[in-house]
Amino acid sequence: MKKLIRIILALAIGSTLIGCSSKPGGTIDLTSNIKVSIRGFNGKGEVYIDNNTKYDKTNSDIRDFVADIEYTLENGANGTLSNGDEITIKAKYSKSKAKDLGLTIKNPTKKVKVSGLKDLLTGYYDCEIKVKNYGLIKLKLDANTAPITVSNFVGLANEGFYNGLTFHRIIKGFMIQGGDPNGDGTGGSKQTIKGEFTANGVDNPLKHTRGVISMARSQSNDSASSQFFIMHEDTPSLDGEYAAFGCAYSGMDIVDKICDDVKTEDSNGTVSKKNQPVIESITCTKIQ
Predict the structure, then answer these.
(1) 47, 54, 101, 238, 239 from 199: Cα distances, Å
(2) Domains (ranges, CATH) in the chain?
(3) Does the CA dihedral 89-94-98-99 come out positive or negative?
(4) What residue range is the signal peptide (predicted)?
(5) 241 Cβ partners below 8 Å, 6+ apart?
(6) For residue 262, what are the CA distances in angstroms to 119, 169, 214, 258?
(7) pTM
(8) What is the pLDDT of residues 67-94, one digit of tens each?
């Protein structure tokens, strides 16, 4: 009886060892299913990639392999792409890990032709921000000084992105901030843009004086998206650090009233959702 038990144990251990050394195998197509988006503006286009690679999600080793895949642009520089450019997306992966897992790799590169990028705006734009129960704030935007910023803002405004959003942060004596779809300072649009200010290598002489409109951002210089702020009072410490792109010529009494009326939750100017002034619309037209 003891001998029989030993044989059964040996077989069990042996089968366990065989299971540990087996390779999951399978085929991984690295680029056919990825989603490639070219965003930005003509001559300033950037590549965004969503990794929709199909694989056996039940295997943790294969999940880790796919998670480690990096996509790079083989030709052309990100942030400089123009309509008509032909670019190649290349998937960088661990060949040794693929071999260990017994994977067959297909289509490590993908060619994409750039199209659909809008031209950067130039000149000056008249902008009207309609705030519910308050009225109109009218601004003049300067696309000659901040073409990327103005092009992004005007595009979002005229497609209705800002309609129904709010001013979620208000600090009297400093500024009012809005344009976040989340209403709490964490959201934005589909793309971020290059920060057009001196500290980021862009000559922008606009100062953060009362009435100036500028782009909010995180610590990253190129993280501005849809959030903007309007200066309530002069704040020179922001000069050269944020992308100012225009100035109010009417409606600063509305900014004053918002700063006076709206109750904030803390010293950072947080406004509860129910108290946030609503942006009914933002419209922008070129000044001829």
Answers:
(1) 24, 42, 47, 11, 9
(2) 25-113 (no CATH), 124-286 (2.40.100.10)
(3) positive
(4) 1-18
(5) 197, 198, 199
(6) 39, 10, 21, 6
(7) 0.80
(8) 999 999 988 788 899 999 999 999 999 9
Query: Taking a C-beta distance cutoff of 8 angstroms, is the pair 38, 21 a contact?
Result: no
Residue with tokens 């399978």: 26
Secondary structure percentages of the chain, helix, strand, coil, to 5: 25, 30, 45
Residue 283 has pLDDT above 90, yes or no: yes
Amino acid, single-letter form, for residue 59:
N
288: amino acid identity, one letter: Q
CA 81 – CA 40 distance, rounded (Å)? 9
**pLDDT tens per residue across span 103-160:** 999 999 999 999 999 999 999 999 999 999 999 999 999 999 999 999 999 999 999 9
Question: Could you give the 3-state DSSP secondary structure of residue 120?
Answer: coil
Q: How far apart are CA 162 and CA 156, in angstroms?
A: 7
CB neighbour burial string for 116-131, b if at least 16 within 10 angstroms, e if fewer: ebeebbeebbebbbbb
Strands 26-29 and 103-106: parallel
Exposed e or buried b for every residue in 37-76, given b needs 16+ CB within 10 A? ebbbbbebbbbebeeebebeeeeeebeebbeebebebeeb
Ranges of H-type helices in the chain: 2-21, 60-67, 95-100, 147-158, 252-261
Judge whether 137 and 147 are in contact, CB under 8 Å.
Answer: no
